[in-house]
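Field notebook, page 482. I keep forgetting to write these up properly, so this time I am using the form the group agreed on. The chain and the ligand, glutamic acid, are recorded exactly as supplied. Prediction of the bound pose follows.
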Amino acid sequence: MANRSLRALRSDELDKSRLSKVRTRIAPSPTGDPHIGTAYTALFNYAFAKKHNGQFILRIEDTDRTRLVPEAEQKIIDSLNWLGMKWDEGPYRQSDRLNKYQKAAKELVEKGAAYYCDCSPDRLDKLRKEQQAKGEVPRYDRKCRLNQPKNLKEGTFVVRLKIPEEGETSFDDLVRGRITFQNKDIDDAVILKSDGWPTYHLAVVVDDADMKISHVIRAEEWLSSTPKHALLYQFLEKETPIYAHLPLLRNPDRSKISKRKNPVSLAWYREQGYLPEAVLNYLALMGWSMPDSREKFSLPEFIENLDLKRIDPAGPVFDLQKLGWLNGEWIRSMAAAQLTERLKDYTRVGSIDITRILPLVQERLKKLAEFDLLTSYFFRKEIDIVPKEIIPKDKTKEETVGTLKTISGPLEKIEKWDKESIEKALADKPEKVGWSKTDLFQMIRYVQTGSRATPPLFETLEAIGQEVTIARIRKAINLLNQ
Ligand code: GLU
């Protein structure tokens, strides 16, 4: 008991001292289209740094040369800019820092915390296959650790981490508490490859230490690498950062989020017209919630309320439908002028027309890219309608033609085409033709828009314009008379 409270006190104190100089980072690998998971991790790092008046750093982890995609770095930068998460330092690039990793590897070998290994790829491959055949987890058998190779030839050996044979390695995780690994279960991982490039483990630790990262907030998938990192900090005599491993985002069937079941590329969300505000808001709801449980909140509100200890490690489900709902909420709450500005990238409609039409569809718009589809009947001369859809249930073709003729005259005569005069011109028509208001207005809606679910009728007709409204009535009459 006494022991436990002592430990709790210590980690809280550590917490406090770290909070005076918070530095976080997002460290994406430029291997393809920026991933929704990168935005998720970036968000928590960014918000945590901002909350504590700290710095948020961008570091490009480009040491895996086989998976490098040249345009990926620019895409990462564009995505973070789009989301409005400005970094305070960087982008740093690991490929610019190779000498630092080589120096650290040398220091580790000299200290006896790492060793050279010249086992051939063939031998390692054979070893792996044998272990797999026995149902064992593949790992290095420490041949070169037991028998140091002599006369090493440049370019033929790697550097491996010398994991202690006994004991355990622990670290604190703000989301998961204290985590302990048995050293005997940890592999002597390669930290420097034969071409002099570092692996992730060495580069990440050297950089986080060098860049004075106080809190490493990253995806759960790196949790199992963390004991190696904790040991590297010890060996390099650097202060270990505080860890927070975020839960894995999941598909609705609870599998790890994947392309097949959910779009994962940030570019897709941007193209579809999800607002960055909504994407960040939704990501903030993944494993985290506002103290008052409200679901719609802004980035500054998130920053103000963020507490990493309140993250739930159980994998949250990323549900596109819910994001769509939230995006709609954001669209509805946005001032018309601001939304018009945002829409410009998503529509061929000019801004004067956007301003005219927007009030009619803002309520129903879920994604900015839907704007043209949702409003096409305002702009196209011809819309697709079919005769049998024009005729209301329980009405005949002849009655419908009669009704269309009855309304067309008074509409044509309107001098100042606005919603008030349209409403006035149609006011007595249901009674005149003996139809219910619903039947009449639904029929007009369909004839004018090709759909029954449209914005308020009079406003819609005003926006469509007198000439086109009349032309569409005539077209309907012709279609029914054919
Ligand atoms: N380069 C790693 C990635 O792509 C970074 C992992 C970490 O944050 O330590 O996710």
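OBSERVATIONS:
- The chain has three domains: 3-246, 335-377, 387-481.
- The mean pLDDT is 94.
FOLLOW-UP: compare against the apo run.
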